[in-house]
Amino acid sequence: SQTIHQWPATLVQPVGSPLSLECTVEGTSNPNLYWYRQAAGRGLQLLFYSVGIGQISSEVPQNLSASRPQDRQFILSSKKLLLSDSGFYLCAWSPGGQGGFGANEKLFFGSGTQLSVL
Amino acid sequence: GNSVTQMEGPVTLSEEAFLTINCTYTATGYPSLFWYVQYPGEGLQLLLKATKADDKGSNKGFEATYRKETTSFHLEKGSVQVSDSAVYFCALKTSGSRLTFGEGTQLTVNP
After folding, report:
1. Pick from A59, A88, A102: CB nearest B43
2. Nearest CA among B109, B56, B111, B102 for reference residue B86
3. Rounded to an integer, what distance in angstroms lies between the CA atom of residue B3 and that of residue A94?
4. DSSP E strands: which ranges in B7-74?
5. For the segment B30-66, what is each residue's pLDDT rounded down to a tens digit?
C-alpha cells in the first residue's frame, strides 16, 4: 500500500531563517506530487506541483521554492522566511501518468506541517 | 486519533438530481468540520465549514450539518449542475492538531 510521510509536524522559525520541509511517498512510482498551504482562516492553496524528477510548476509567486531530487521525494524550501510564510503546509500525491491535474484525480495527503514564523 | 471516512466514489448523477456525499469522523476533542472541493485543473478550495454541533455550513447551494450524535457531516445539494463535477474532500481539525482529510469523492454530473 502507498504511504506518504511529511516532516516535521511542527516548526517554529525566526524571520530570515531558511526552511526545508520534506515529503516522501512509498509504495508507488512516478507519482504527481504537490505542496499546499493553508493560512489561518483560509482554504488550501496549491503552491507547487511536480509530474516528474526535476519538473516543478509554481502556482503562485512567493518566497518559497520546491525541488524533486528523487522520484518520490518532494522538498519545500526557503532561503529567508517571512512572517507571511506562517501556515499549515500539506504535501500530497496522486497517481502519475495524468500529466498534471485530471478530472478524475484523487489526492492523498500527508499529515501536514504547522509552520510558525516569529 | 482523528480520522475521516468518506463515501467512496465515483458518484455519477444526472443534472438536477439530489446529491448526498457521506462523511463520518472520529476525533479527540471537539473538531471543526470542512468540505473542500477540487474542480478539474485547479487546486483544492474550501467549500463550507461548521465549527460546532448543529451548525450548518452552506455555500453555492451545498449544505452540511454538523451532527455530533452521529459524528457525521454529510454534504448535500438539492439540484446538481454539470459545473459541480469535481472531487470533494471532507476534513476535520481539532484545536492544536493538523487537518485530517478523507480520501475524496469524485462527482460527475451528466447533462
Report:
1. A59
2. B109
3. 20
4. 11-14, 19-21, 23-26, 32-38, 44-50, 56-59, 62-65
5. 898 989 887 775 656 779 999 899 999 999 999 999 9
Residue A88: closest CA among A5, A9, A3, A4: A9
Strand order in the sheet with A19-26: A3-7, A19-26, A73-78, A65-70
Question: What residues of chain A score a pLDDT lower than 50?
Answer: 41, 98-105
* Structure confidence by residue, pLDDT tens digits, A82-101: 999 998 888 988 887 644 44
Residues of A within 8 A of B41 (CB-CB) are 100-101
In the numeric block, which cell numbers belong to residue A101? Answer: 491535474
Distance (Å) from the alpha carbon of B40 to chain A's nearest alpha carbon:
5
**Contact yes or no for B75/B25 (Cβ under 8 A):** no
d(CA B88, CA B13): 14
Q: Which three cell numbers stand for residue A116?
A: 510558525
